[in-house]
Task: structure prediction
Amino acid sequence: MRLLNHIGRLYTATAQGVLEDAALVIEGERIAWVGPAAPGPPEEVRLHIDGEVGCGGALVTPGLIDAHTHPVYAGDRMAEIARRSAGASYTEIAAMGGGIGATVAATRQASARELRVLVVERLGAWLRGGTTTVEAKTGYHLEREGELDALSILAELGLDPALPRVEPTFLGAHAVPPGKAPESFIDEVVTWCAPAAAAGARFCDVFCDEGYFSVPQSRKVLAAGRRAGLVPRIHADELAHSGGSMLAAEVGAQSADHLLYADGDDARALAEANVVATLAPGTALAMGRMPPAHTFLGAGVTVALGTDHNPGTCGATSMSLVIALAVAAFGLSVDEALTAATAGGARSLGLKDRGAVEAGKLADLVVWDAEHEGAFAWSYGLAPLKVLLGGRTAGR
Ligand code: NIG
Ligand code: FE
Result:
């Protein structure tokens, strides 16, 4: 057992709140004891401690959880992003051959080995920034083999002890690929759900929005995913008020994401159906519209946060930046944003073993270069001093 000592503030993300002058004991990959640094762990625990790490009075939180990312792609769309900044809309750019279709073309050109290298680099950046669990979607091949390869890459890398844990999501229905009709493409995607589950997917997602997939088409994919054992999550109401939140509530999705156009009725439906609202401030800022974060919290919806790292709207891998943006742009308190990035993320991913500091949880922990959690809102990218993944110092 090892003692993590001299924690100035321990943000537990539980009803315990923040513990000052705290310590914790790690046994194997789990937290065994949490409490005050003085007097420290009880005698029967202390007897088994054979190592000690001092935190020098720093802030410690659970490892951050990024509940929405798209990391499996090649190429970039910087020219399109510059055009968007000058006034072209996301939908106009997509209609002109940019958008998801442009990344699909570049990604299909890359070999599985090349993609793997890109994903390793990206996942490494997440971990260095203090994110220990990353939800990661496919969706830039939009053909069977490529989608399945992407899932295999994600499932394999998620087991690499030098990279964050990964929760793979099958997003075959991300866009209609060139030369296909939406209905027949949906029928194809339906047949990929079982192999996607076999390749390591836990979730099935769909881009349910104007110009992408309709509510009935999305319902069809999510039902097929469910039959294959995949838990539904949805890109909902991001580009228009198109019914994604209500579908999420109807099918009992684990999460509805983005929600820039969701309203009070949507919030009540999500709360009723116990669907988590996963919000992505980087993309909200890129799209120029904010989700009704306080409406969700007021209705009793659990909020989670994601970078939405993707080649079109947001390249961030830093969840500490996302926390700062959630405070600045959504008006969340530091406490609400930090809870969303830890316990909220765990709920968004249906994981009970992480996202909080208490005995029994995984020892995924971050020692921050700060003494108080307020630093997240000030730093715009607060850096870790040390990241622990399953009790071990993380990184290559
Ligand atoms: O989450 N909404 C769909 N997918 C991404 C954007 C993907 C892209 O532009 O490549 C999103 O915003
Ligand atoms: Fe997304």
